[in-house]
């Protein structure tokens, strides 16, 4: 799976806080290199394609080794002490919680089913975790279907809902729950009338690769295999199967209907992870595969009736080279999002009675200078999310209108279409979010948006006036890099402002407008936020993405260096007040920006980041990311991996800035050893005397499922650490 989960943009707020649980005490992990034991070097040397690659801390990859655990625990105790001594740290956490509470309830993943049955995830004001809710009609009373906090109270371990998919008739909901941020979800089927689960949970159903058949009596799901003793973690996502289960049957009665070891005549690779798409009113089912990271893959079609036959007759529609990134089924038609011949994307429609891709016709094109990122079908039109920088606007495409009509929005921000999987409605629910505007869920009828009453919209809390400025920064080769700046009105450009540069730049994902209580707490203190859509993002479509991909990945951090120099030259910051941050795959952005130009920064945050790109593919999720970053076993791709690997580009006797590495011990996307190895290497290499902290969490993973409390704590730690290192906060005596 990709390092960034598609339904949610993993931002600063969505990465878990670090907490090491010992007895009843919460202990966080890391600190100054001088305050902890230096990790011993046990060098391993590989020769890869004629290049000698040294790895002094490979033993950290065995994270279960008691000596490794002991070192991590020591790092954690020391780190917590350092962070707790920052005088404004607790004040920041309280302020973040206060602003968050003032924004009201948080509602996500609204799904509108036939019969006006509505489902959504809701975290109430002051609540820790999202609950699965339902109501009949937009104005109907709501009730709780699934509350993961009950299981958390019973076990003492945080639980989270990973996904949910209602049946078409509303009688059942399939949902996944995992513990401790692991994302190791089990599948449950809930009877919505009794509120009780049907049958036993089904393990290893990690993602929302589910499909209810039109009669709502059975569903398909993708299940990972159980690893045998001694099998490497890299086998985790190989040879998964799509299973077909009738409601009420046991998991052992489920029938395998699709997958590399099931439909062996289709030429699937072991990493082709499948799902089956159904829709009420359609006789067809469409099987789709990806490697869980890049959205391109295979598409096949068959008649649903074939499920009752000994074998299903699948007909191939497309493969990876056809560049199809999304699909939606409606009647006899299959709608396809593709960047083939359209780097800013377009939507095609194919009649499945004649499933030859050459017969597909264009039904929606991206407007000039914008990117058609996503689409959804309504009863009588196609709706699209169109990117314009960090903003996303809606566009409606009626039958026969390939150019579409722009939809006016109540304010400038990022619009996100909510789910109408049956394409049952002409009006559209969507959420609008802005840098300085609270998220609102709106109902679009025609060209008019109104409040359907799904969420209470509290008044904006008392916050400073914030300027939002879009700039373009010339990079080393003349490419103009878009960057969005946020700061208090009246800010003086005298270089004294604490400034944080943030980048991601992988999978074509882009920095997008969103309201963040933690960001507001930073801006209140005179901070500047700079969100850079460097190459590797999709802000300008596929060409911009491919310009920061594998062999061209150096553009990602070279653009980052250019953005840092711009912030300094324009007087927003100096090297004493400039920080940089990257999350997940953004670890490449931040890590290589820092190791390329350490003199530009006072501090950096490496947030659950990819640090050792050379060794990543030997992990469970690393193998799924070969398509994005490359393989060390491929001579054409190894040089690019070595270049983007922060761990391998750390140099001895270098004055690195203060760095805090953040990670969850249960992280299934980026293994915690990435941060552990890099922290050890930095602590040994730096001669700046500035702290290298490793903040770990035994109850968290990659950020999915973290509680609100954890998130507030993490945000406070990050911002107080930055302010401390920028000379804007002091430490109290221990």
Automatic annotation (TrEMBL):
It comes from the Bacteria. InterPro entries: AB_hydrolase_fold (IPR029058), Pept_S9A_N (IPR023302), Peptidase_S9_cat (IPR001375), Peptidase_S9A (IPR002470), Prolyl_oligopep/macrocyclase (IPR051167). One of its GO terms (biological process) is proteolysis. Residues 515-728 form the Peptidase S9 prolyl oligopeptidase catalytic domain. Residues 41-419 form the Peptidase S9A N-terminal domain. This is prolyl oligopeptidase. One of its GO terms (cellular component) is cytosol. It comes from Collimonas arenae.
């Amino acid at each position: 799976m990709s390092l960034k989960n598609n339904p949610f943009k993993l931002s600063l707020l969505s990465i878990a806080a670090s907490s090491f649980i010992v007895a009843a005490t919460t202990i966080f992990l890391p600190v100054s290199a001088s305050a902890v034991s230096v990790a011993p070097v046990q060098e391993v040397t590989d020769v890869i394609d004629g290049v000698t690659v040294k790895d002094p801390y490979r033993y950290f990859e065995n994270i279960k080794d008691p000596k490794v655990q002991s070192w991590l625990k020591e790092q954690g105790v020391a780190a917590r002490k350092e962070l707790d001594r920052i005088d404004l740290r607790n004040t920041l956490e309280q302020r973040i919680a206060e602003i968050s509470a003032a924004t009201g309830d948080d509602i996500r993943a609204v799904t509108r089913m036939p019969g006006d049955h509505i489902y959504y995830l809701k975290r109430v004001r002051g609540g820790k975790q999202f609950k699965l809710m339902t109501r009949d009609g937009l104005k109907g009373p709501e009730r709780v279907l699934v509350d993961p906090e009950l299981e958390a109270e019973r076990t003492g371990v945080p639980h989270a809902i990973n996904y949910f998919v209602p049946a078409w008739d509303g009688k059942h909901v399939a949902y996944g729950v995992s513990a401790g941020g692991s994302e190791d979800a089990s599948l449950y089927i809930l009877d919505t009338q009794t509120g009780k689960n049907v049958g036993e949970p089904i393990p290893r159903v990690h993602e929302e690769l589910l499909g209810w058949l039109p009669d709502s009596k059975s569903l398909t799901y993708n299940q990972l295999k159980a690893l045998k003793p001694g099998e490497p973690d890299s086998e985790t996502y190989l040879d998964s199967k799509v299973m077909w289960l009738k409601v009420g049957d046991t998991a052992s009665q489920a029938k395998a209907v699709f997958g590399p070891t099931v439909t062996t005549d289709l030429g699937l690779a072991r990493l082709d992870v499948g799902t089956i798409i159904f829709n009420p009113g359609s006789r067809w089912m469409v099987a789709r595969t990806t490697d869980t990271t890049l959205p391109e893959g295979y598409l096949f079609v068959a008649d649903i009736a074939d499920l009752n036959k000994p074998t299903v007759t699948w007909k191939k529609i497309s493969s990876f080279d056809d560049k199809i990134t999304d699909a939606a089924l409606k009647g006899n038609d299959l709608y396809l999002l593709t960047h083939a011949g359209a780097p800013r994307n377009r939507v095609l429609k194919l009649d499945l009675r004649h499933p030859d891709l050459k017969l597909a016709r264009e039904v929606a094109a991206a407007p000039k200078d914008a990117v058609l990122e996503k689409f959804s079908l309504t009863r009588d039109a196609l709706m699209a999310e169109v990117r314009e920088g960090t903003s996303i606007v809606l566009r409606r495409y009626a039958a026969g209108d390939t150019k579409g009509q722009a939809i006016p929005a109540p304010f400038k921000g990022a619009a996100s279409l909510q789910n109408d999987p049956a394409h049952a409605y002409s009006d559209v629910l969507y959420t609008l979010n802005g840098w300085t505007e609270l998220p609102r869920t709106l109902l679009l009828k025609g060209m008019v948006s109104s409040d359907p009453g799904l969420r209470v919209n509290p008044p904006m809390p008392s916050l400073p006036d914030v300027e939002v400025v879009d700039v373009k920064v010339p990079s080393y080769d003349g490419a103009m890099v878009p960057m969005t700046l946020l700061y208090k009105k009246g800010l003086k450009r005298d270089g004294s402002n604490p400034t944080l540069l943030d980048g991601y730049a992988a999978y074509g994902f882009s920095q997008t407008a969103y309201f963040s209580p933690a960001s507001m707490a930073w801006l209140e203190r005179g901070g500047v936020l700079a969100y850079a859509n460097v190459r590797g993002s999709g802000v300008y479509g596929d060409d911009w993405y491919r310009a920061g991909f594998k062999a061209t990945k150096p553009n990602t951090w070279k653009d980052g260096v250019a953005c840092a120099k711009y912030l300094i030259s324009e007087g927003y910051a100096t090297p004493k007040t400039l920080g940089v941050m990257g999350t997940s795959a953004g670890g490449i952005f931040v890590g290589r920006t820092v190791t390329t130009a350490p003199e530009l920064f006072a501090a950096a945050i490496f947030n659950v980041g990819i640090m050792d790109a050379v060794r990543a593919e030997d992990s469970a999720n690393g193998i799924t990311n070969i398509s994005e970053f490359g393989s060390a076993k491929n001579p054409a791709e190894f040089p690019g991996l070595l270049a983007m690997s922060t761990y391998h580009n750390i140099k001895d006797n270098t004055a690195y800035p203060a760095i805090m590495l953040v990670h969850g011990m249960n992280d299934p996307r980026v293994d915690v050893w990435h941060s552990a190895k890099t922290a050890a290497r930095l602590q040994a290499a730096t001669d700046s005397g500035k702290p290298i902290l490793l903040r770990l969490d035994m109850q968290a993973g990659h950020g999915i499922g973290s509680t609100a409390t954890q998130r507030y704590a993490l945000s406070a730690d990050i911002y107080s650490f930055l302010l401390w290192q920028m000379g804007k906060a002091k430490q109290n005596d221990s």
